[in-house]
Amino acid sequence: xxxxxxxxxxxxxxxxxxxxxxxxxxxxxxxxxxxxxxxxxxxxxxxxxxxxxxxxxxxxxxxxxxxxxxxxxxxxxxxxxxxxxxxxxxxxxxxxxxxxxxxxxxxxxxxxxxxxxxxxxxxxxxxxxxxxxxxxxxxxxxxxxxxxxxxxxxxxxxxxxxxxxxxxxxxxxxxxxxxxxxxxxxxxxxxxxxxxxxxxxxxxxxxxxxxxxxxxxxxxxxxxxxxxxxxxxxxxxxxxxxxxxxxxxxxxxxxxxxxxxxxxxxxxxxxxxxxxxxxxxxxxxxxxxxxxxxxxxxxxxxxxxxxxxxxxxxxxxxxxxxxxxxxxxxxxxxxxxxxxxxxxxxxxxxxxxxxxxxxxxxxxxxxxxxxxxxxxxxxxxxxxxxxxxxxxxxxxxxxxxxxxxxxxxxxxxxxxxxxxxxxxxxxxxxxxxxxxxxxxxxxxxxxxxxxxxxxxxxxxxxxxxxxxxxxxxxxxxxxxxxxxxxxxxx
Amino acid sequence: xxxxxxxxxxxxxxxxxxxxxxxxxxxxxxxxxxxxxxxxxxxxxxxxxxxxxxxxxxxxxxxxxxxxxxxxxxxxxxxxxxxxxxxxxxxxxxxxxxxxxxxxxxxxxxxxxxxxxxxxxxxxxxxxxxxxxxxxxxxxxxxxxxxxxxxxxxxxxxxxxxxxxxxxxxxxxxxxxxxxxxxxxxxxxxxxxxxxxxxxxxxxxxxxxxxxxxxxxxxxxxxxxxxxxxxxxxxxxxxxxxxxxxxxxxxxxxxxxxxxxxxxxxxxxxxxxxxxxxxxxxxxxxxxxxxxxxxxxxxxxxxxxxxxxxxxxxxxxxxxxxxxxxxxxxxxxxxxxxxxxxxxxxxxxxxxxxxxxxxxxxxxxxxxxxxxxxxxxxxxxxxxxxxxxxxxxxxxxxxxxxxxxxxxxxxxxxxxxxxxxxxxxxxxxxxxxxxxxxxxxxxxxxxxxxxxxxxxxxxxxxxxxxxxxxxxxxxxxxxxxxxxxxxxxx
Lengths: 490, 490
Known about the structure:
The structure is a homodimer. Chain A is an alpha/beta fold. The first copy, chain A, is built from 20 helices and 10 strands. The longest helix of chain A is centred in the N-terminal third of the chain and has 25 residues. Chain A is elongated, with a radius of gyration of 27 Å. The interface between A and B is large, with 43 and 43 residues.
């Protein structure tokens, strides 16, 4: 894998001076085109051997292009994240459409170094690699241009580089004891790097290994690669939504999980009052448990219109100290959110340790309203299932309890509630023309819901289907399920 | 001050049960009106004596109103801010128009407790109070509805409350050793609180002291106060921009600081090259100084169109490691930014310790383009001078070096550069119709610039006026000034 990067590539000064100005002008032009058209974001990773010029390459990119439209992310790999999953800090700084994010120290850093030091076993490392593959696949599927450079030096080359830097007073500080120690571990580093690069070099996000010895060669190679990739994407004709037939087939016998629900389960008012008190008390006690400070909870509410999501949420919040929870109403995305992958706005709302985020509508909008209304293409919502599963798995693995509710009412019950809302002055704002239009799409929504439940009810994050024709029954079911899930996690 | 809050206010259950449902419905209705019209944000502070029901009040608000549109902020007062000024964490969570932010633990907490413990002297405490007054004035001037509740208990009342809580197993955990210690310090707490409340109870953001003994009285009082204030603001007819004549008078002899600048200072190309190398090297060395890790730097660029801001910024970034700086191009605000005070988007971009933020155009837009184009009213830009001074003072006091450049070119030089840009294909995108239109407003901009410099060149954050007809001269002046400022701070 590193063979071509140990050939002693060199570019003489004359050629460099001839080519560099042209490259620079072309890069700048391409960058401004991107800034104007905002068609996609660019994500550039710079990894590789210490001393091979990672910092210099980063600076070169910032010098050639306009740094006002580049975000440099030199993340301390162990930076504080207050209980969010490891990928959270990278999600936070994803560049919006039109901008470029350069990462020195990326999602590869921690898995790589841990594996080199033998802190993770092969199976764990493999799982981390799979995770990275899914993340990058999501990025490119969402339209990002992902460019990954690995700067390489032979063992001799690295030693020479360290010696050179150590000779001059001005650069001596750059070679640390750790660097010398890593030089002794060179072979181990290379072995892990080879494996990692091979496994994560995909068609959409390939690695380019660049020999780091000669600065001019390295710079021109990186610069030219960025330029070519940018130009290719900028000049690409606008392709209509790829609509390969990748959809789902409705149940052929017409029997669906939703239809099988017994929607009419009821609870008597007196029973409800007593049980409500008990379950709320239980929930409150659980969230004051010492160990709760090490957990976080994500509660997701979806359901038919007028199924009573708001009422159920209130029965939860009533039970909790307001310092513990945040309720997040999910409506149309704003400017900042629209310019990034659709999961971005949910990542930014993840709870800290010891806290509960309650989402009123969720990331499932992608496979519900966006699917049914045709706001995204079929391939987009088809891939969303696994992206969402992956998102929730990351949460679950990170001590976050994920509890998801689908509240279902019957068509007749919905009609009744709509009519009631229309008739009650202070509830009228809760019903819009769109709600009425959605009723015509009842069947399409049912298919979408069934697919969603089949494809995203996982052991980490199962769906709870709640028959909700009776509000009392639904609320108790929600409270009990949430309390059970937290209890199990403590 | 606390006299009325020790009268033993009580509301009997019957009255409460009669009034509560109506209050609740009215509150919810007002909240939804606010959510829909997005006219202003609501900021509610809940402070007071421990045991007087701060948490309960917070929960009550969240129960009466729709918690989906309330952000609860229970900030750990000493939360990590990586080198930003103390107010940064509050700016971050300011609610947007239409939403409500409730603070338990606010900008009062740290100054208050430090003063009680004698960690700050009276003068320092007074300065902190002034700071708070300016902050709240800014909030209300920007349109926020600010409501401040102080829950009070007499010494006896507090003791009784602690004893009551300690008796039951379910509530015992709520009374800590610190609480008992604070009870012993009751008089000191009251003395400081009285002073603080008196000084910060203003016409636009008054404190309401509420007796905390009786839960029903406390709840109804807080709820009714919120409702009245909300209704008053919601029902207010839309007032046209108050335009009291508060503007500035142009210099009566026509002599301005801008006209006095010698714009034609030049530097020879050879001298430039040598000096550029030297100053860039110097800047680089300074940012690698051990002590630099304790500083941060905010560099602000303003100037005539085509004065060479971009070129000067590049000469700075060339000298720096890309991991050290962020360049922030300031254009029109996005949705999230428009819904908050105009300084919000700059607060959110403040550098961490050891880093440099370079703003290409800045918060001075308020007193430049917004003033000249009439995007905000005269009172709004008049008050901006002191708001900005206050912002920069907070930065300076917090180990942030603030360096501000105004790059000035002559009218003729600007015309020349515009023509050049028009003629050069890859520079054409840098010039718009608006740039041409702005030339007609040359005099209005000059007045605005002179006022800005007179009113915001402070010892903490002085302006550097840079004659920029000669690009070489301007760039060196910028580099030298920045390096001097950092050197002085180290």
